[in-house]
Amino acid sequence: MVIYNISKFLALILNLLVVSHLLQNLALNQNAVQSSNNDSLGFADKAVDGNRDSSYQRGSCTLTTSQSDPWWRVDLKKVYTIGAVLITSTVELENGLDGAEIWIGKSTEINDHESMSGQTFYFPCRSFEGQYVTVFLPGSKKILSLCEVEVYYGYPSSNLALKGEATQSSTLSFAAASKAIDGRRNSFYTNGFCSHTAEDETDPWWRVDLQHSFTITTVKVTNRGDCCAERLDGAEIRIGNSLENNGNNNPKCASISHIKAGKTYTYQCDGGSMEGRFVNLFLPGQKKTLTLCEVEVYAARENTDDV
């Protein structure tokens, strides 16, 4: 089994881990291996030495050769219920983790996956059980470099959007706003599981009302898979407690540069978290169409007990 997508942030991650009682880094100083070694510096164990220094030149990062499908793996020695994975990548390889995948399982086999893209990335997991955590970068002529991989025991918060109410600026045919919070990441619009605004609209938007205000740490967005992935380029995730301008004036959590067709990407807010009841996907511009196949919202653990 596997886990998640990605986006930048560091400072409040430790606070989140403390809040969630995810205190023990299970990967620290464990046995690690990788598909190849580029030189005498970038050995696999550099990613479990407890040092998050993101400069490869300072000697605390792994590095594979340029190859097809490079991978890195840590053996936790026994099976744990894994609640989160924290990855620090190297600054020398810009976007070096784009398209990479994290796998968690009880064997070294790879059976299922979700993609991620990217310095430090936080992945709250759905309580996967596993002994082996693998970072896998599919493709030809790829180089995998990791400066630290941390694995934490625990149980994450639930997807708050499942209990929310969704609306959008307009609706095309059967593609209601609620289709984006139905718990299905089915990315084919024709299968009936995606929301869709009217075509060629000015500043289309989609919004979920979580019913209460939460400290939101993570928003996951699944893009349409059967066509038109570029339509979501430039969308903004906005979070707050105001409905002024339909919630689109709330502070910006993150911007979506591009999500590959059918993929689920994870976004953390600048600064680590934001308070809000309303989560908007806002697509500024003329002649825009907003299609969302799933939107998931996760909050700091202590704020989910009231739901």
Automatic annotation (TrEMBL):
<feature type="signal peptide">
    <location>
        <begin position="1"/>
        <end position="27"/>
    </location>
</feature>
<keyword id="KW-1015">Disulfide bond</keyword>
<feature type="domain" description="Fucolectin tachylectin-4 pentraxin-1">
    <location>
        <begin position="23"/>
        <end position="158"/>
    </location>
</feature>
<dbReference type="GO" id="GO:0010185">
    <property type="term" value="P:regulation of cellular defense response"/>
</dbReference>
<keyword id="KW-0732">Signal</keyword>
<comment type="function">
    <text>Acts as a defensive agent. Recognizes blood group fucosylated oligosaccharides including A, B, H and Lewis B-type antigens. Does not recognize Lewis A antigen and has low affinity for monovalent haptens.</text>
</comment>
<keyword id="KW-0106">Calcium</keyword>
<comment type="subunit">
    <text>Homotrimer.</text>
</comment>
<dbReference type="InterPro" id="IPR006585">
    <property type="entry name" value="FTP1"/>
</dbReference>
<comment type="similarity">
    <text>Belongs to the fucolectin family.</text>
</comment>
<dbReference type="InterPro" id="IPR051941">
    <property type="entry name" value="BG_Antigen-Binding_Lectin"/>
</dbReference>
<protein>
    <recommendedName>
        <fullName>Fucolectin tachylectin-4 pentraxin-1 domain-containing protein</fullName>
    </recommendedName>
</protein>
<dbReference type="InterPro" id="IPR008979">
    <property type="entry name" value="Galactose-bd-like_sf"/>
</dbReference>
<keyword id="KW-0479">Metal-binding</keyword>
<feature type="domain" description="Fucolectin tachylectin-4 pentraxin-1">
    <location>
        <begin position="159"/>
        <end position="306"/>
    </location>
</feature>
<dbReference type="Pfam" id="PF22633">
    <property type="entry name" value="F5_F8_type_C_2"/>
</dbReference>
<keyword id="KW-0430">Lectin</keyword>
<dbReference type="GO" id="GO:0046872">
    <property type="term" value="F:metal ion binding"/>
</dbReference>
<dbReference type="GO" id="GO:0001868">
    <property type="term" value="P:regulation of complement activation, lectin pathway"/>
</dbReference>
<dbReference type="GO" id="GO:0042806">
    <property type="term" value="F:fucose binding"/>
</dbReference>
